[in-house]
């Protein structure tokens, strides 16, 4: 067995019985053996997944625990590669919704994406039941507000603003809590399903939304119950926060820049909380998105 651990490539020739025996070694009391077995299984990558999944049914609690941990590590590594590949695509106009979910999977590799997409579909369907977006865009926005804030009870997390969960869309939907950017994403993805021309606006210190039409412009503060804002309201907020009136502050934020802002928020949160491994992971994404 030691020779096999030293030469992981030979593991492919093992019988099913021997692979199961290798997985059972995850309960070995010798830390050296445990480390070697764990590293060998990690190095095997996707090849080891069937063995580890079988180990989840073991009667031994330690085997189940370590199998789950290694599977999660493998899934996170795969999600990390997928998101970096996505970031490497050129241009500003990436598929924002896809990018947000790929980023979410780097932290929650067992994400049930279909379930969350179905919930967003249902939010949009609830709006359609009471309003035809093609008839009146302002009325449609008010209907979105009723669905998200009155019916579904989404709200800004003012008590724990810097909780990293507020930056991952699955946890925002689970908890109905988020930061300005994540709540804007929920709102934006619902609006897109309704055909509403809503875009993100990355004001300094506060992310909002904008619906632009030839007749009017409406800004939406998703963090504060979907409040409608005018250009003057936004200018006042910028001035209060120490910023001048710059047209760029109220311009549409591209998908790439939006993903960068999510990652920047997470980077600051992990740095402040000293979660350095997570900080470094997100920093890699920032570098790729900035290229």
Task: Give a brief outline of the structure.
The protein is α+β, with helices and mostly antiparallel strands.
What does it look like?
There is one protein chain. The chain is built from 13 helices and six strands. It is of the alpha+beta class. 31% of the residues are buried. α5 (61-87) packs antiparallel against α6. The chain has helices at 2-6, 16-24, 31-44, 49-55, 61-87, 96-107, 113-130, 137-151, 169-175, 180-193, 231-240, 255-273, 276-290, and strands at 155-156, 177-178, 198-203, 206-212, 217-221, 227-229. It folds into two domains: 2-80, no CATH class; 96-290, no CATH class. It has a four-stranded antiparallel beta sheet. It has a two-stranded parallel ribbon with strand order 1-2. α9 (169-175) links the parallel β1 and β2.
Keywords:
elongated, 4-stranded antiparallel sheet, alpha+beta, 2 domains, two-stranded parallel ribbon, 13 helices, 291 residues
Number of helix segments? Answer: 13
- Beta-strand proportion: 5-15%
Rg result? 23 Å
User: What do the pLDDT scores average to?
Assistant: 93
Low-pLDDT sequence parts: none
Gross morphology is elongated
The largest pleated sheet is described as: 4 strands, antiparallel
What is the quaternary state of this protein?
Answer: single chain
Instruction: Tell me the domain tally.
Output: 2
Helix content: 55-70%
Order of helices and strands: HHHHHHHHEHEHEEEEHHH
Strand order of the largest sheet: 3-4-5-6
**Structural class based on helices, strands and sheet pairing:** alpha+beta
Q: Tell me the span between the first and last alpha carbons.
A: 45 Å
Number of strands: 6
């Amino acid at each position: 067995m030691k020779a096999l651990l030293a030469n992981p490539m030979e593991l492919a020739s093992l019988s099913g019985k021997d692979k199961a025996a290798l997985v059972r070694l995850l309960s070995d009391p010798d830390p050296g053996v445990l480390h070697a077995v764990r590293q060998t299984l990690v190095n095997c990558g996707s090849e080891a997944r069937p063995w580890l999944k079988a180990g989840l049914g073991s009667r031994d609690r330690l085997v189940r625990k370590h199998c789950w941990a290694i599977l999660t590590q493998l899934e996170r590594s795969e999600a990390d590669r997928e998101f970096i590949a996505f970031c490497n695509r050129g241009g500003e106009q990436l598929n924002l919704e896809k990018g947000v979910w790929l980023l979410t999977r780097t932290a929650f590799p067992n994400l049930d994406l279909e379930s969350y997409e179905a919930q967003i579909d249902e939010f949009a369907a609830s709006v359609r039941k009471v309003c035809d977006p093609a008839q009146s865009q302002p009325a449609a926005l008010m209907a979105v507000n009723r669905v998200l804030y009155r019916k579904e009870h989404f709200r800004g997390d003012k008590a724990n603003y810097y909780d990293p969960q507020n930056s991952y869309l699955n946890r925002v939907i689970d908890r109905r809590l988020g930061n300005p950017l994540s709540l804007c994403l929920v709102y934006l993805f619902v609006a897109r399903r309704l055909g509403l021309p809503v875009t993100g606006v990355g004001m300094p210190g506060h992310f909002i939304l904008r619906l632009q039409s030839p007749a009017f412009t409406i800004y939406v503060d998703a963090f504060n119950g979907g409040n409608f804002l005018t250009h003057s309201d936004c200018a006042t907020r910028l001035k209060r926060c120490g910023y001048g009136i710059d047209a760029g502050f109220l311009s549409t934020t591209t998908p790439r820049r939006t993903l960068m802002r999510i990652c920047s928020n997470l980077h600051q949160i992990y740095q402040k909380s000293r979660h350095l491994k997570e900080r470094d992971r997100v920093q890699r994404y920032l570098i790729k998105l900035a290229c």
